[in-house]
Amino acid sequence: MLLKYLTLACAVSACAAFHIIPAPGGPNVIKSSTKQLTSNNFQKPHYSTRRSITRIGDYFPEKNNPLHSIFNPARILVRKPAPQRASRISRLEHDKVTFRTRVGGEKFLSIPQAERYTTQDWLHNLRTIPSSLLIQRIRQPLLVTMGWTCVVTAALHVFPAVPALSPKAHTFVSSALSLLLVFRTNAAYNRFWEGRQIWQKVLDCARSLARYLTLYAEELGDARRKRVANLVCAFPIVLQEHLQGGEKPHRTEYFLEAEDYLELGRASNRPLCLVNKIAKVVKGVEYSAAWTSRERLALLALVNSLSDTIGACERLVQTPVPLAYTRHTNRFLSLWVLSLPLTLAGDMGWGAVPAMGLVAWALFGIQEIGLTIEDPFRRALKLEVIADTIYADVIQTMGSRDVLPTYLSTPFFANFPAPPAAEAPATSG
């Protein structure tokens, strides 16, 4: 009887966690850790699982800061809560992405890094299980499994003469189910890692293009340098829009001109349109002693590599894991989990309810992880961090501020550390 009441209490707690029972006080608006949110700060909240982000735009005053509307924490760090769920969403320190954080107020870290989980976080991981995003995504099969287990257990108590099923069938097919889940997760992770490699190629090509703009500054001219640098900085943003859908005009308005927006509006492939613009600018450079066909072909090869990343990303987006394989795995897992209470309820009684909840959480959680990282460009990869890295690296590579692109030569970057000036050669007296 005591076990029965404990099981009932666990079920009520689970319902409260999943907001089947409304929490007192109603939904709460999640506030940024750096700035109080008001209706004037943002137009539409962004969906983000990060708790806080430190970006290069946070190191300088808000006045004359073109990045403020882009990197304003009040716009980025807001997650639009579902009804009756705002107060239950956790914000983990490990979800924080640091963007070249200052050390001691002066020194920058080498690269943007996300915090890693360690063994010291073991207790924290257990404490945040009820509020994890994974449970929120799999709550439907989890609650159905626990409810079905309650029905089976109650039926066996009402009809004690009905024998329980033998667990041999589940034992025989459990190995096949485990292989399916492992293969599914491994295939999804390979897609995730391939997506990261593609965007690393985007970053490498952008750095190489900025380096060419610096090495051949006299041959290219300031106007062409500014134009190419603007297009290079706009490319990752437009590529992200192309892969995720939607538009972010407030992030490209500093890079593109009015004519560019007209052409992009008519283009079916906007990233390809930007790459073609870069190629046209390079083609228009006149030949000289220092700018021959070799230099032009080398620069066009980088443009071609940038164009190849578009097709590589489209291949991942347009070619998901075969639907038949995904459906069969889901059906196999569902039937296995829903039939398991018929074998456990006879021996465990009401204890089968929390046991089945644990089994469903583990197996459906593995499947959900694979579904999440299968499309790496939507929820798995933080593409904004890579785009921000391109901005900063273009600034550093271009060097002198009088030849930076329009967006990068604004007063905002006046406080950015300048490269050391070359020392004049000593003259013999």
Number of strands: 5
Unreliably modeled segments: 16-95, 400-429
Radius of gyration: 28 Å
Strand ordering within the main sheet: 1-2-5
Discrete helix count:
18
Structural class: mainly alpha
Strand content: under 5%
pLDDT average, as an integer? 74
What is the H-and-E element order? Answer: HEHHEEEEHHHHHHHHHHHHHHH
Q: Characterize the main sheet.
A: 3 strands, mixed
Shape: elongated
Helix content: 55-70%
Distance between the termini: 102 Å
Comma- or semicolon-separated keywords:
429 residues, mainly alpha, 18 helices, elongated, disordered C terminus
What does this structure look like?
A hairpin with a 3-residue loop joins strand 3 and strand 4. This protein is mainly alpha-helical and 429 residues long. Among the domains are: 13-113, no CATH class; 191-319 and 383-411, no CATH class. It is built from 18 helices and five strands. InterPro entries: YneE/VCCN1/2-like.
Outline:
Keywords: Cell membrane, Ion transport, Membrane, Signal, Transmembrane, Transmembrane helix, Transport. This protein is mostly helical and 429 residues long. Helix content is 59%, strand content 2%.
What is the topology?
Blueprint: H1 2-17, E1 53-54, H2 68-71, H3 73-76, E2 97-98, E3 102-103, E4 107-108, E5 113-114, H4 122-127, H5 133-137, H6 139-158, H7 168-215, H8 217-220, H9 222-244, H10 249-252, H11 258-266, H12 270-283, H13 293-318, H14 323-339, H15 341-348, H16 352-374, H17 376-380, H18 383-398
Parallel strand pairs: 1-2
Antiparallel strand pairs: 2-5, 3-4
